[in-house]
Design a protein that fits this description.
The chain is mostly helical and 475 residues long. It contains 20 helices and six strands. The structure holds arginine (ARG).
């Protein structure tokens, strides 16, 4: 059903209908659209444009429609242009022409942006809950591997020994910041655009504040032209989602690498691996690879949105219809990806022997030698030089730094006395890094306790917002 047509002598060409039609994708907004219409109805009642019996009829019609949308009993048809027209058609089919009064005073321009904000609030919260579950899985694995020793990398070269729990836990911090970003987003984007109508504000929406409150917003946007034209909240949401995607991608890359026969650090459970159609022996880390690969579309969706907005004149322009598919794609991609990645992390088995066996390769204790001299008062530049000479000596001899004897150390620098050898172990290196952010076991225990605390508090606000929001939706 078209919501316009009075001034047209003929209907749109088939090609135009196909181009213009958005209902196949914007149907996802249907429950939110009904919700906004229900809130709007209260305003119409206040205004007195509908008699109270009519209001009751429309309200019951909308409530019925809400149930039928959720159950799938009501959906769009071939003629519907968008979600708003499909819902108005459904309402009129149910209760007759009084259903058309729901359009009084509002425009699709403020309706669509209000629906979309509600959709995003709902789905960012759902995604946050999944991110919080992933953080818990990472913490559990980090705790289980708190005493595993592994080489830590810079430039993908052995750098210094680390506690492997520390390596796993680092991912949790990025995801915690993602939750923080969602909290931020919510705080900044909880003003309602409804009441802006087409662009100038409505003469027939008496109390936008009331409607905002009814929908769970904390207030109303200040300027009606901004309210219909602003999509900052969409760009920001896509940035948050793309950043989650980038974090998943980096985690996926590590699991893929650790799963190679060359590393052999992790065994991904069968339930989170896939096989090859030709090579019967293959067990591939496809979940980790998809975590890496899906970031492409998540970043692309952000770029799509910013590009649509750049240079766009204010007031509603149809270009704005292009805001939805990137969001639906990012949301649905993450809701599919996150549980699989959490499952992969939670069920992974780590091979400590393999990690530990290479920990001293690449003279990874050279910093310990330099630190040892620095502690004895040698300026670090000179200490660094001396430790470098030790490495060169080992290269000549074809041995590791930890295998050099006391005599050779002393020859390179007189302060490299024999007690140095006691410090030259991976455990020594790890346990000396005792500052709050370091890799020693007590440091990591402190870090993990803080992650658990922050994740629990995030999980509490996410659940309470979700409860509040679903309460609003079901009123
Ligand atoms: N389907 C449109 C959108 O998604 C909303 C309709 C506004 N259309 C209009 N011609 N003013 O943005």
């Amino acid at each position: 059903m078209a919501l316009w047509g009075g001034r047209f002598s003929q209907g749109p060409d088939e090609s135009v209908a196909a181009l213009s039609r958005s209902v196949e994708f914007d149907w996802r907004l249907a429950p939110y659209d009904v919700r906004v219409n229900l809130a709007h109805l209260q305003g119409l009642e206040l205004l007195g444009v509908l008699q109270s019996e009519e209001v009751e009829v429309v309200r019951n019609g909308l409530r019925q429609l809400f149930k039928e949308i959720l159950s799938g009993a009501f959906s769009y048809n071939d003629q519907d242009e968008d979600v708003h027209s499909a819902i108005e058609r459904g309402l009129v089919e149910k209760i007759g022409s009084v259903g058309g009064s729901i359009r009084t005073g509002r425009s699709r321009n403020d309706l669509v942006v209000t629906d979309f904000k509600l959709y995003l609030i709902d789905h960012l919260l759902e995604i946050s809950q999944e991110v919080s579950a992933l953080i818990s899985a990472l913490v559990t694995q980090a705790e289980a591997n708190i005493d595993a020793v592994a080489p830590g990398f810079t430039h993908l070269q052995h750098a210094q020994p680390i506690n492997f729990g520390h390596e796993l836990a680092k991912h949790a911090h990025g995801f915690l910041r993602d939750l923080d970003r969602v909290g931020d987003w919510l705080e900044r984007n909880s003003l309602s655009p409804f009441g802006a109508s087409a662009l100038a504000g409505s003469a027939l929406v008496p109390e936008p504040e009331l409607i905002a409150q009814e929908l769970g917003f904390v207030g109303v946007m200040a300027n009606s032209i901004d309210a219909t034209s602003d999509r900052d909240f969409v760009g920001e949401a896509l940035f948050v989602l793309a950043t989650i995607g980038v974090h998943l991608s980096r985690l996926g890359e590590e699991f893929t690498l650790w799963n190679t026969s060359e590393f052999g650090w992790v065994e991904i459970s069968d339930a989170f691996s896939t096989g090859s159609s030709i090579m019967p022996q293959k067990k591939n880390p496809d979940i980790a690879e998809l975590a890496r690969g899906k970031s492409g579309r998540l970043v692309g969706n952000l770029v799509t949105m910013l590009t649509v907005m750049k240079g766009l004149p204010y007031g509603y322009n149809r270009d704005l219809q292009e805001d939805k598919e990137p969001v639906f794609d990012s949301v649905e991609t993450l809701l599919t990806l996150l549980p699989a990645v959490t499952g992969m992390v939670a069920t992974a088995k780590f091979h400590r022997d393999r990690m530990a066996s290479g920990v001293l390769d690449g003279h990874s204790l050279a910093t310990e030698v330099a630190d040892y001299l620095a502690r004895k008062g040698v300026p670090f530049a000179l200490a660094h030089e001396a430790a470098g000479s030790c490495v060169r000596k080992c290269e000549e001899l074809g041995i590791g730094l930890h295998e050099l004897d006391a005599e050779s150390f002393a020859k390179i620098h007189p302060l490299l006395t024999s007690d140095l050898l006691g410090f030259l172990t991976a455990h020594g290196a790890i346990s000396s890094r005792t500052s709050s952010l370091g890799t020693s076991i007590p440091s990591l225990q402190g870090q993990l306790a803080e992650v658990v605390r922050e994740n629990a508090s995030a999980s509490r606000w996410i659940s309470s917002e979700r409860d509040r929001f679903s309460g609003m939706m079901n009123q």
